[in-house]
Design goal:
single chain, mainly alpha, two-stranded antiparallel ribbon, elongated
Length: 227
């Protein structure tokens, strides 16, 4: 039986894969627009500029998969610590530092809520310090994942032949941020992208994320978060 972490990842990855297959069929001319009604239907090819926009949108879907996967993975680590009632004293020093930094980042209102939620400080402080919304913010690439892996103590090693060690994530992040911040238009981002290249990027990104999740599951299974 697959873990909840992998179930969520598989669902999101399939959603992304379906979209990139759509782009492939679109570029090959297999998909056309049908306009009108049942009695009077006209079929036409999709405008080239619209095709560029649709291709650029693929980077948004891919980045969403990357950030959501890593966010859920780190949440799974904290859930593991909470569910097993792991004490602050027992976790590795790197995680202690993360917890302390999380506490330091809380504002006054959050600190007051923290005081209410803590009964057994050595155990409750771990889950009470966690803030899912502050984990990542448009900055996830292979380097960020490597840094995160070093912080928590799980492996970032993958099969480079299948994943290119996550190098595509920088391209995905850059294009996503250009679109999100308005630095480039969708047509600009999608102008030079072919469906074939996008499919290769998508497959490598999914392979990379799957390998990272497998590393995290090993990390949790072996309780490598303990000192």
């Amino acid at each position: 039986m697959k873990s909840t972490l992998f179930q969520d990842f598989d669902e999101r990855a399939q959603e992304v894969s379906r979209y990139f297959l759509f782009l492939k069929n679109l570029e090959q001319g297999s998909i056309k627009l049908s306009m009108g009604n049942a009695k009077n239907t006209k079929t036409k090819s999709i405008n080239n500029d619209l095709e560029k926009t649709l291709k650029a949108t693929g980077f948004l879907l891919l980045y969403n998969l990357v950030e959501s996967t890593m966010t859920n993975a780190i949440e799974a680590v904290f859930d593991e610590l909470k569910n097993k009632n792991i004490s602050f004293d027992d976790v590795r020093d790197e995680i202690k530092k993360i917890i302390i930094d999380n506490i330091k980042d809380k504002d006054n209102k959050s600190t007051n809520n923290l005081l209410v939620s803590i009964q057994n400080i050595s155990v409750d402080i771990i889950s009470a310090s966690f803030n899912k919304k502050r984990l990542f913010s448009g900055n996830v690439d292979a380097r960020e994942i490597k840094d995160t892996a070093n912080m928590y103590g799980f492996s970032y090693k993958t099969n480079a032949r299948k994943t290119q060690n996550g190098s595509d994530l920088l391209t995905v992040k850059t294009n996503r941020n250009d679109l999100a911040h308005g630095s480039k238009s969708f047509e600009e981002v999608g102008r030079n992208a072919t469906a074939y290249e996008l499919l290769k990027i998508q497959k490598r990104v999914i392979s990379y994320l799957k390998a990272i999740l497998e590393n995290i599951e090993i990390y949790l299974s072996n309780e490598e978060y303990l000192k």
